[in-house]
Amino acid sequence: MPRLNWGAVILSSIAGTAAGLALLAVVSGFTSSVGSIAVLIFAQYLIQFATGFLSAHFAVDEPLLHGAAASLLLFAVATVLTLALDASRPSMWFIAFSALVAAILGSAGGSLAESLRLRTTHPAGSSEHDGAE
After folding, report:
1. Are the CB atoms for 42 and 101 separated by under 8 Å?
2. Radius of gyration (Cα) for the chain, nearest Å?
3. What is the tens place of the pLDDT at every residue in 79-101?
4. CA-CA distance, 55 to 27, in Å (whole number)?
5. What DSSP letter does each residue of 71-116 carry, written as one string?
6. pLDDT of residue 7
7. What are phi and psi of 128, to 5 degrees?
8. What is the pLDDT of residues 5-17, one digit of tens each?
9. How many degrees, rounded to 5, is the angle at CA 49 between CA 65 and CA 58?
10. Which of 22, 26, 17, 28 lies closest to 50, judged by CA?
């Protein structure tokens, strides 16, 4: 059974939460226009992807699992903060769909981290046998 490196998951989730809160502080100075809401949604997805990337980068193995776990932890923290601070309550279907999107984006970030790790481990044009035949 795969084991999670909780240090990598929690550290990357904290970094994602900090980035999200900093972005929210910057964007909240603007009016509540459609453009600023679209920027926040896009940035939320980008931060979830980056959180998955960071977690998988710090972890030794299981990059997709680490990416999804970190992004879901970030999503849980953001959801709790949103529910505590906002009077409107989103539907459970919306929350479930958003959690699924977070897991997918975190896994995609983890996949990119693993792809880059493999590229630096085995650069293009090199063989694993190093010329030994």
Report:
1. no
2. 18
3. 898 888 877 788 899 999 999 99
4. 26
5. HHHHHHHHHHHHHHH-S----HHHHHHHHHHHHHHHHHHHHHHHHH
6. 93
7. -70, -20
8. 999 999 999 999 9
9. 55
10. 17
